[in-house]
């Protein structure tokens, strides 16, 4: 299976998982995702932006199988991830994964708390 996931792992993601590459270096030009994603590429300073249309309670499954640590940005400059300032990224090391959970209209949480 592409992206380093077995067929069983891909099925666990409900088959709705996009293969993406990180891009940009700030929130405004990071690669936007619309749901579960597996990052398969991108430079070490590149980023992924969480879905702008996520509803409270939505969960986004994310895995970084690229060879680089990637930056994951909240969906907007007014959103925060965990206790980090609004609009600020969280780094996900290579071969790490986590679940992003939309807790409120301006707050995302990660499971585990520190995914890298």
Sum up the structure in keywords:
six-stranded mixed β-sheet; Jelly Rolls; 116 residues; single chain; 1 helix; mainly beta; four-stranded mixed β-sheet
Provide an overview of this structure.
Helix content is 5%, strand content 37%. The protein is mainly β and 116 residues long. It has one domain: Jelly Rolls. A hairpin with a 2-residue loop joins strand 9 and strand 10. The radius of gyration is 13 Å and the shape is globular. 30% of the residues are buried.
Indicate the topology:
Blueprint: H1 7-12, E1 18-21, E2 31-32, E3 37-41, E4 47-49, E5 59-64, E6 70-73, E7 80-81, E8 90-92, E9 96-104, E10 107-111
Second CATH tier, the architecture: Sandwich
CATH topology: Jelly Rolls
Total strands: the figure is 10
In DSSP terms (H or I, runs of 4 or more residues), the helix count works out at 1
- What's the structural domain tally? 1
Q: Mean pLDDT across all residues, rounded?
A: 88
Radius of gyration: 13 Å
Query: How helix-rich are the residues, as a percent range?
Result: under 10%
Multimerization state: single chain
Low-confidence stretches: none
What spatial form do the alpha-carbon principal axes imply?
globular
CATH class: Mainly Beta
N-to-C CA distance: 24 Å
- Strand line-up in the sheet with most strands: 1-3-5-9-10-7
Task: Indicate the proportion of strand residues.
Answer: 35-45%
Major sheet size, sense and barrel closure = 6 strands, mixed
Write the element-wise H/E pattern from the N-terminal end onward.
HEEEEEEEEEE
Instruction: Tell me the structural class.
Output: mainly beta
């Amino acid at each position: 299976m592409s992206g380093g996931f077995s067929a069983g792992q891909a099925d666990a993601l409900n088959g709705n998982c996009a293969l993406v590459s990180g891009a940009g270096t700030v929130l405004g030009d990071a690669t936007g995702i619309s749901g579960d994603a597996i990052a398969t590429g991108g430079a070490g300073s590149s980023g992924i932006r969480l879905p702008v249309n996520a509803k409270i309670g939505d969960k986004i499954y994310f895995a970084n199988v690229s060879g680089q640590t990637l930056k994951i940005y909240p969906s907007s400059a007014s959103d925060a991830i965990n206790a980090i300032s609004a609009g600020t990224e969280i780094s996900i090391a290579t071969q790490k994964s986590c679940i992003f959970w939309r807790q409120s209209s301006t707050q995302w949480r990660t499971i585990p708390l520190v995914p890298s």
